[in-house]
User: Which sequence fits this backbone?
């Protein structure tokens, strides 16, 4: 089991944002975390990636408890991330963005002598090749189209050979055709390389087409879990989504 | 003993009131416009000078005095509006450092204008009519005017509170302080709002200055003296928070009043120490809130292209000139060349943290000055030779970088700029007040190079080798993984952390590098001049460094070098040919901020890009 989460809780002031969520993801498996607005998806996610410390519960990555570690330590243990709003280094080229992740992985950030320009680009290019961005390797990230930035983020996230990918709304802000392409790409990479993927998503089409399993949250608690067909048929899920009016995609 | 404490406590309250008047204006202006107005101290000084003129010209009596004070404050308000309309309105969207720098240009201009109008001598005003005497409180005689001042602070706070909570305008100001973009979106006339806020703030500063008339002499040093303290008050209280400013003014007033009794040697340091501690414990001040940066437009910095053949050629040509020409130059030209070499390194060291690091430093002179003092103190107290002194300089500066940097790199934006300024002021006041060790204002004299380096030409080459060497090292680091990591943290802290980078450690190490490099420059400067003075660490020296970097262009790698060359040359010419060089320099700064925000190299790059 790549990731095992046991009964995590988080409250802000008096508000219980997450109250007892447990989940697990295996190598090569895509687990989608869904739920209406305010269900606790983001809070859950931020506890997994280290931005928030859970009030209680365990988050076990490959046998080690990572709850409460800072994001950079969690990354070093093999967790790649993409953000809902892409975060890349705008003043650097696409290639350099990926190289930074590789340099960090190699513990070479405090090298003040060797020019980055003379680094062997082969590994970074191979990563860009995987996400279909090799042709744009020399362009600055500041000028890329949004869909391309998402691909660059994926390449960065893959740079440390992660065991787990955390993707926060991977297709948010993209055109519908791009969404399908990006998720197919992600799913392909995950299955071929045995990477566990946990993602949140608003687009139900994306979720039901690509997730192996789905975990539905409502008001901080899990209300359903299973394969897409099971979740689709679950009356409580229907109730939650019907109640909020967001029925399309489920039916 | 008790009487003594009482008197100190009361005079502490009186200073707190004056301080609050100035700080309240500063904080209200910041709250709405997000501008840290360096020229606020100048408005205060103008208030004092104008009220002197009015009060001495008007007939004696209540009307003459109080009328003069009020009219002076109103005139200052109008001057403030002029500054806002002519300068600040155009730079609201510029980075904080440009705003600080632009308003510092105004400081320089006002200094020379005041010198032209009122002359260099201290001016003494009349005492306030009706408040000349003293009263006895618990057996201690206490001046009436001080009691009056004690009352002014809370009264002004109360009036401001009413203004902000009971008028429509005040409500808008509070809303704008909380969320400027939202208020703009709701259709409030922002221009009018900003201008009126600036008027109010300026009037408060002018009033603060005018009310000093019966207390102390009016002089040309009032502006920087009060602005440093007002910054401390505003930052401790929390930028934009009026009650915070009041609280901080009280705290600081008492601190200074009793500090004199307990630690007479470090009164100046004390205020800045408190500020440093508060900022570390509460990064946004006692009652401040973190700014709502969610809406802030994200600035995309340009990439650093590698040196083009042309730039490389120019660089080699400049270096060849620097090596080949000096043997044929006179002593004076050699001295200027030596200074230019030192300034190039000083500017490059600041650029290292400002450009790739994106950190604002308003106190870089601290490391330059500590380098100089590191060398000079060894020479004075241990008769150490130059070789040892030049080794001690970066060591001392680097040590300060380790300690100060640990605090400074935690903050960002205006708060970081203020904290770096605070540390520089701590270093400056230590050198200024610790007379036994540092010689105080008289400095340390007789810091001469070893015999072999005495000839000006030899010393020049020594300085050239060290300065060019360290500058190239910094440049090398910018293009190495470390420089990239620094930029990564600036571009996207979120992403940097998510790929395993410890942003704090990276920025801290960069800060230390920059301090060491500035220390090398400072050490060389000490032996070049043969003496060191506290002014090496004073605000104007920090501004020199900023100007060099900004003149060249922050986000270009060659910028600091070009900037240092241009600035040192301009400065030299100005000092030689103009008496009113501050006026001129101030105008140059304002023009730079308004028309060349990318600096000379940035502008040149744009020009060549357009040609393509």
Assistant:
């Amino acid at each position: 089991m790549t990731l095992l989460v046991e009964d995590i809780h988080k409250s802000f002031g008096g508000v219980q944002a997450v109250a007892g969520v447990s989940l697990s993801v295996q190598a090569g498996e895509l687990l989608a975390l869904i739920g209406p607005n305010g269900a606790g998806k983001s809070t859950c996610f931020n506890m997994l990636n280290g931005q928030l410390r859970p009030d209680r519960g365990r988050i076990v990555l490959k046998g080690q408890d990572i709850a409460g570690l800072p994001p950079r330590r969690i990354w070093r243990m093999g967790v790649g991330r993409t953000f809902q709003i892409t975060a890349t280094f705008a003043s650097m080229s696409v290639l350099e963005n990926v190289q930074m992740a590789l340099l960090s992985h190699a513990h070479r950030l405090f090298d003040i002598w060797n020019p980055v320009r003379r680094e062997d680009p082969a590994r970074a290019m191979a990563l860009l090749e995987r996400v279909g961005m090799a042709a744009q390797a020399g362009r600055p990230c500041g000028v890329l189209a949004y869909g391309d930035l998402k691909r660059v983020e994926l390449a960065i996230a893959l740079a440390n050979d992660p065991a787990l990918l955390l993707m926060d709304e991977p297709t948010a802000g993209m055109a519908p055709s791009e969404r399908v392409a990006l998720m197919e790409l992600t799913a392909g990479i995950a299955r071929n390389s045995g990477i566990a993927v946990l993602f949140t998503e608003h687009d139900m089409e994306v979720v039901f087409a690509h997730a192996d399993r789905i975990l539905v949250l409502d008001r901080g608690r899990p209300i359903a879990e299973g394969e897409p067909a099971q979740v689709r048929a679950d009356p409580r899920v229907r109730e939650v989504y019907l109640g909020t009016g967001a029925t399309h995609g489920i039916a | 003993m008790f009487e003594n404490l009482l008197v100190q406590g009361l005079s502490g309250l009186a200073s707190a009131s004056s301080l609050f008047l100035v700080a309240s204006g500063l904080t209200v202006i910041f709250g709405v416009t997000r501008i840290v107005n360096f020229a606020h101290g100048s408005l205060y000084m103008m208030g004092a000078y104008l009220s002197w003129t009015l009060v001495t010209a008007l007939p004696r009596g209540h009307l003459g005095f109080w009328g003069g004070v009020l009219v002076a404050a109103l005139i200052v308000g109008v001057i403030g509006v002029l500054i806002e309309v002519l300068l600040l309105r155009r730079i609201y969207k510029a980075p904080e450092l440009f705003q600080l720098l632009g308003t510092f240009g105004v400081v320089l201009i006002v200094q020379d204008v005041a010198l032209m109008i009122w002359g260099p001598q201290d001016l003494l005003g009349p005492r306030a009519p009706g408040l000349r005497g003293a009263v006895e409180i618990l057996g201690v005689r206490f001046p009436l005017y001080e009691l009056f001042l004690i009352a002014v602070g809370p009264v002004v706070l109360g009036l401001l509170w009413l203004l902000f909570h009971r008028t429509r305008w005040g409500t808008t100001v509070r809303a704008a302080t909380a969320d400027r973009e939202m208020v703009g979106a709701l259709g409030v006339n922002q221009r009018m709002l900003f201008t009126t806020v600036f008027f109010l703030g300026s009037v408060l500063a002018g009033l603060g200055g005018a009310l000093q008339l019966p207390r102390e002499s009016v002089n040309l040093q009032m502006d920087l003296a009060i602005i440093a303290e007002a910054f401390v008050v505003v930052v401790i209280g929390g930028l934009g928070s009026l009650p915070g400013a009041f609280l901080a003014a009280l705290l600081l007033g008492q601190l200074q009043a009793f500090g004199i009794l307990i630690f007479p040697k470090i009164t100046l340091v004390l205020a800045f120490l408190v500020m440093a501690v508060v900022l570390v414990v509460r990064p946004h001040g006692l009652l401040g809130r973190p700014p709502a940066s969610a809406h802030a437009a994200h600035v995309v910095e340009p990439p650093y292209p590698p040196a083009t053949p042309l730039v490389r050629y120019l660089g080699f040509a400049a270096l060849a000139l620097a090596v080949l020409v000096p043997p044929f130059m006179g002593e004076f030209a050699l001295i200027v060349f030596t200074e230019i070499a030192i300034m190039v390194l000083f500017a490059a060291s600041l650029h290292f943290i400002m450009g790739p690091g994106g950190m604002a430093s308003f106190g870089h002179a601290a490391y330059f000055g500590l380098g100089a003092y590191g060398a000079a103190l060894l020479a004075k107290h241990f008769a150490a030779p130059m070789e040892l002194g030049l080794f001690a300089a970066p060591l001392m500066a680097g040590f300060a970088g380790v300690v100060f940097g640990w605090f400074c790199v935690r903050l960002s934006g205006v708060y970081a700029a203020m904290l770096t300024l605070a540390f520089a002021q701590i270093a400056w006041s230590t050198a200024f007040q610790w007379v036994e060790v540092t010689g105080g204002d008289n400095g340390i004299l007789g810091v001469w190079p070893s015999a072999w380096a005495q000839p000006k030409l030899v010393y020049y080459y020594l300085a050239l080798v060290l300065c060019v060497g360290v500058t190239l090292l910094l440049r090398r680091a910018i293009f190495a993984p470390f420089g990239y990591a620094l930029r990564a943290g600036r571009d996207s802290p979120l992403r940097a952390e998510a790929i395993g980078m410890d942003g704090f450690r990276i920025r801290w190490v960069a800060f230390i590098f920059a301090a060491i490099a500035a220390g090398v420059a400072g050490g060389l400067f000490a032996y070049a001049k043969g003496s060191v003075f506290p002014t090496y660490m004073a605000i104007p020296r920090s501004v020199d460094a900023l100007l060099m970097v900004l003149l060249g262009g922050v986000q270009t790698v060659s910028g600091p070098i070009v900037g240092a060359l241009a600035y040192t040359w301009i400065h030299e010419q100005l000092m030689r040919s103009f008496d009113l060089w501050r006026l001129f320099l101030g105008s140059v700064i304002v023009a730079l901020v308004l028309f060349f925000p990318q600096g000379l190299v940035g502008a040149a790059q744009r020009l060549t890009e357009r040609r393509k």
